[in-house]
């Protein structure tokens, strides 16, 4: 659902002060479209009786089809405009609207031509022609038409006053600067369910992001556990493999945490849901480094003294890795997969390169898919990585310099950590920010210019390339979860990604100082809150409209257990209640439960994303205790019996690579759906859930 309700009262003000863009009467949006040529006629009014029609000749071809995208577009228009109904999508040979029946017509025209910055043809471009009663979205493929609908939905969102939305007459012509515009999520060290991942796809798609790279196997890195003399702690160090093989599979023991894994049915549904929003899932199974989970399963495959490395010369190793891909390749709908292949033993360069090239050939022969690897400089005088493999650069000087790679004939994706890395909750020594650095993205390139996928270095222009380099495929930003499951909730991960994805989308679609229509930083800052709140098809902000003033609900004396109509409320919020537990079971049961979190009686423990976070407070018996829980996106704390001098924060303790322990605050969505559940005995009264900390 759209999140526009919380903006009522100030939305019109922000739209009014947005600076005019070079796109004439169009308001700034994210990302900026390439060009608009004003027409001479009247503007197109978007009204509730608008009809969305699809070209009958080509509209039902493909998967998803233009018709599929059109139906999602119709639903999204309802979301951002607050119109209660727009007629169902229909097919038609042609379309011409009237004053009483305006039309948005989506047509697929293979004769059109759209190009990337490097001149290569792309099927992601689109053209929008606007006259008084008809808007026509034309593209060479359904995906291009889909991105055209994102332009119109965003314009409707920023112009929305629930009365009159108009699109100025003229023609928009637009296409992305680069083919790869993605984000990577480390799901190997942090569990994410597919419903959350699907919501992330939906949100990212609104900004024309087209890939979600899922890093689906990995382990925590703790040298004492991994490499200590005579230490077998590696056997119990957290490691995960997220694809769950079917029952009876020879790979069953590869997945140590069945409840933290995706079934084939779930993963296929995730890919389908993301594809319906224009986002491709690119799965990664990381080998031959980062392979502790495989060695915990089959220790004989381990490189001596390196429990997280595979011994590539051991006869069983490569057949075992191939068997894993044999099992899961049929699951994957993408044309490319990642085999990881970073941070392996440089002294075994020849073994490494032979493995990478062999896996490329094997996966291509089995499935027709090509592979990507993380950039890793393996110093061999005999062998080289095949140029059929895309290199995902991430680090200087840890991998080959990307400009040299491209000059040598390799295709490269830019994931340079200086600009594009985040880490869940914190990073060692503050190396990475909590969201992409706005200073770096807008003016951190050489000469004070903005970042774009052709920029790999903030200080050395010789390490950067031209936007037109044909070997530069694009860029993927990355969010790692080095500290594991307990460091963050899934919604805290969204908080880190939400703004970052939007600014990244602007720079990977429109470039930086490449197009005159590109956004300024001030324009981005003004329009982003509107678009974040309006983004349709998901509710990652967990917005719930208040029933009166800022009150979500109020229950002076709820009958326990009680169920409300509200599943979860995102911060900032305040949840106030008075409670007295029964002397028969003072530490049992649940005070509040919801979609994203649960508050247990015992030690006032929050549960979120499968982890427990205790406040360490025992509720006294035989008396009421008043508790006020305050939450923002940065913290959650409790005030007990009105003592504002004693704020008690829910925290987590993170092991930073075995070097030191770091304390971090936790942010929880309000558990709003159930009150006094799971065997709670006692009384809860004066429950009030309100917006604002």
TrEMBL record:
Species annotation: Somion occarium
Gene3D superfamilies per record: Chitobiase/beta-hexosaminidase domain 2-like, Glycosidases
Instruction: Cite the Glycoside hydrolase family 20 catalytic domain residue spans from the record.
Output: 180-511
May I ask which residue range the UniProt record assigns to the signal sequence? 1-25
- Which named protein is this? beta-N-acetylhexosaminidase
Lineage, opening ranks: Eukaryota, Fungi, Dikarya, Basidiomycota, Agaricomycotina
Q: Where is the Beta-hexosaminidase bacterial type N-terminal domain?
A: 30-174
EC assignment: 3.2.1.52
Instruction: Provide the family line.
Output: Belongs to the glycosyl hydrolase 20 family.
Reaction(s) the record says it catalyses: Hydrolysis of terminal non-reducing N-acetyl-D-hexosamine residues in N-acetyl-beta-D-hexosaminides
Pfam families in UniProt: Glyco_hydro_20, Glyco_hydro_20b
Keywords noted in UniProt = Glycosidase, Hydrolase, Signal
Write down the CDD domains for this protein, in alphabetical order: GH20_DspB_LnbB-like
């Amino acid at each position: 659902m759209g999140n526009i309700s919380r903006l009522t009262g100030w939305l019109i003000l922000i739209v009014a002060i947005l600076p005019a863009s070079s796109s004439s009467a169009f308001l700034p949006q994210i990302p900026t479209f390439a060009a608009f040529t004003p027409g001479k006629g009247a503007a197109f009014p978007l009204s509730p009786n608008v009809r969305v029609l699809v070209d009958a000749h080509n509209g039902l071809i493909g998967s998803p089809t233009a018709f599929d995208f059109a139906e999602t577009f119709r639903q999204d228009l309802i979301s951002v405009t607050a119109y209660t109904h727009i007629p169902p999508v229909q097919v038609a040979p042609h379309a011409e609207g009237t004053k009483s029946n305006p039309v948005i017509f989506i047509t697929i025209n293979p004769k059109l031509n759209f190009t990337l910055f490097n001149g290569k043809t792309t099927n992601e471009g689109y053209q929008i022609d606007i006259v008084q009663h008809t808007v026509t979205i034309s593209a060479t493929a359904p995906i291009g038409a889909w991105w055209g609908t994102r332009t119109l939905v965003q314009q409707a969102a920023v112009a929305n006053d629930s009365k009159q939305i108009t699109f100025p007459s003229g023609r928009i012509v637009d296409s992305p600067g680069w083919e790869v515009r993605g984000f990577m999520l480390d799901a190997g060290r942090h569990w994410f369910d597919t419903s959350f991942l699907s919501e992330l796809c939906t949100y990212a798609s609104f900004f024309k992001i087209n890939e979600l790279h899922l890093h689906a196997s990995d382990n925590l890195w703790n040298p004492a556990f991994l490499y200590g003399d005579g230490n077998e702690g590696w056997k119990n160090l957290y490691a995960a493999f997220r694809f769950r093989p079917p029952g009876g599979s020879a790979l069953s023991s590869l997945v140590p945490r069945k409840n933290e894994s995706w079934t084939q049915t779930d993963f296929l549904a995730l890919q389908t849901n993301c594809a319906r929003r224009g986002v491709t899932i690119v799965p990664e199974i990381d080998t031959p480094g980062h392979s502790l989970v495989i060695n915990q399963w089959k220790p004989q495959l381990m490189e001596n003294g390196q429990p997280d490395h595979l011994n590539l010369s051991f006869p069983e190793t490569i057949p075992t890795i191939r068997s894993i891909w044999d099992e899961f390749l049929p699951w994957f709908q993408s044309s490319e997969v990642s085999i990881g292949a970073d941070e392996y033993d440089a002294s075994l360069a020849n073994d490494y390169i032979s493995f990478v090239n062999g896996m490329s050939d094997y996966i291509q022969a089995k499935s027709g898919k090509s592979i990507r690897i993380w950039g890793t400089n393996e110093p061999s005088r005999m062998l080289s990585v095949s140029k059929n493999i895309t290199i995902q650069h991430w680090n200087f000087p840890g991998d080959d310099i990307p400009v040299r790679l491209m000059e040598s004939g390799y295709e490269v994706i830019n994931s340079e950590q200086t600009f594009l890395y985040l880490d869940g909750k914190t990073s060692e020594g503050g190396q990475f920010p909590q969201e992409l650095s706005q200073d770096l993205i807008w003016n951190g390139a050489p000469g004070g210019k903005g970042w774009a996928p052709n920029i790999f270095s903030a200080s050395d222009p010789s390490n950067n390339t031209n936007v037109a380099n044909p070997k530069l495929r694009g860029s993927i930003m990355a969010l790692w979860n080095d500290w594991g499951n307990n460091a963050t909730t899934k919604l805290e991960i969204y908080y880190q990604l939400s703004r970052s994805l939007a600014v990244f989308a602007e720079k990977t679609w429109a470039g930086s100082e490449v197009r005159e229509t590109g956004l300024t930083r001030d324009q981005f800052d003004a329009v982003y809150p509107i678009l974040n709140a309006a983004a349709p098809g998901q509710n990652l902000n967990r917005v719930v409209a208040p029933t009166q003033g800022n009150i979500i609900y109020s229950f002076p004396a709820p009958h326990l257990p009680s169920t409300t109509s509200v599943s979860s409320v995102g911060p900032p919020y305040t949840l106030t209640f008075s409670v007295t537990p029964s002397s028969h079971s003072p530490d049992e049961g649940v005070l509040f439960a919801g979609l994203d979190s649960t508050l247990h009686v015992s030690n006032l423990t929050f549960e979120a994303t499968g982890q427990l976070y205790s406040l360490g407070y025992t509720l006294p018996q035989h008396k009421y205790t008043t508790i006020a829980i305050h939450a923002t996106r940065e913290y959650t704390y409790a005030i007990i019996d009105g003592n504002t001098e004693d704020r008690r924060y829910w925290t987590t303790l993170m092991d930073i690579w075995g070097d030191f322990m770091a304390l971090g605050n936790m942010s929880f969505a309000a558990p709003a759906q159930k009150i006094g559940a799971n065997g709670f005995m006692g009384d809860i009264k004066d429950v009030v859930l309100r917006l604002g900390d």
